[in-house]
Amino acid sequence: MKKHTMTEKRANELYCDAFQLYGNEKLVDYYDAETGTFYKYAQYNTIAGFCCPFASVGCMIACYAKGGLHKMPSVKESREKSYKATLDVRFSEKMIYTIGVELTSRRYNGNVMLIRIHESGDFYSLEYLKKWVKIFHAHSDGRVNFCFYTKSFLFFLQLDESEKEIIRAGQAAGTIAFSLSLDDTTSPEQMALAMEVKKQFPLANIYYCTDDLSKVKHDQECDCANCAKCGHCTHATGKTTAVKVHSVSKEQLKKYQSKKRKTTAA
């Protein structure tokens, strides 16, 4: 692919302006001395809550994106723009093109683009998930790594077998790392679906948010201070990471624990 100037990119109808070419304060670019690889973050987000059809009670209470980020007008506008972009029937084609163009830029040329999907939001429909699977398949040569958390377990089970194989192949190659997001208020029905996803995708990680780490059998704990250092969502495969409920006030934590008791009782 030839290099494009910024003017050409913005003018091209296949360029997706909703794609964000940076991480955040925790998703920082980093160098892996063991492999000699420089990972540069990018991300794609949708609307927290609105695009989270399977959000648990605990998730909605503790959600930083919904409670904090979306109160900022510029962020809210950005998330709405990126959501609308996903509705385009050519979303996959546009993202495939945009990622390809950016790989030739000074920032990513020679480095690995590490795309965090959904710092806010989730796969809100089966159709939307399928669009991302097409993107995974188009950029499976190792120059792009994809990572994400999800509670949309049902949609992963509804994928065609060929689509599931694309994800499994990416996991095995280290280009896809995804985590099943669970917490103390996850319903029994959702928990059962999550375990089925884990069965069909053995290399999927489990990320369990709880107010008592001792209750969860896990491989490692996360303090949510530095995603690159933790590596759970970026490179780990088949691990269970436990994290204590965070970014909430004491009042919110009490509410979370109350909802957890009600969920357990039900």
Please characterize this protein's 3D structure.
With 266 residues, this protein is an alpha/beta fold. Helices cover 40% and strands 17% of the residues. It is built from eleven helices and eight strands. An eight-stranded mixed sheet has the order 1-2-3-4-5-6-8-7. Strand 3, helix 6 and strand 4 form a beta-alpha-beta unit. The longest helix is centred in the C-terminal third of the chain and has 16 residues. The mean pLDDT is 86.
For this entry, give a set of tags.
alpha/beta, 8-stranded mixed β-sheet, 17% strand
Outline type: globular
Bin the strand percentage.
15-25%
* Order of strands across the main sheet: 1-2-3-4-5-6-8-7
Query: Low-confidence runs (pLDDT<50, min 5 residues)?
Result: none
> Which percent range fits the helix content?
25-40%
Spatial gap, N to C terminus: 56 Å
Number of strands: 8
Global Rg: 18 Å
Instruction: Tally the helices.
Output: 11
* Mean pLDDT across every amino acid position: 86
Main beta sheet: 8 strands, mixed
- State the secondary-structure class: alpha/beta
Strand and helix order:
HEEHHHHEHEHHEHEEHEH
Q: Summary?
A:
The protein is 40% helix and 17% strand.
Draw up the topology in text.
Elements: H1 6-11, E1 30-32, E2 37-44, H2 57-62, H3 64-67, H4 73-86, H5 91-102, E3 112-117, H6 126-138, E4 144-150, H7 153-157, H8 161-173, E5 176-183, H9 188-200, E6 205-210, E7 220-222, H10 227-230, E8 240-244, H11 250-265
Parallel strand pairs: 2-3, 3-4, 4-5, 5-6, 6-8, 7-8
Antiparallel strand pairs: 1-2
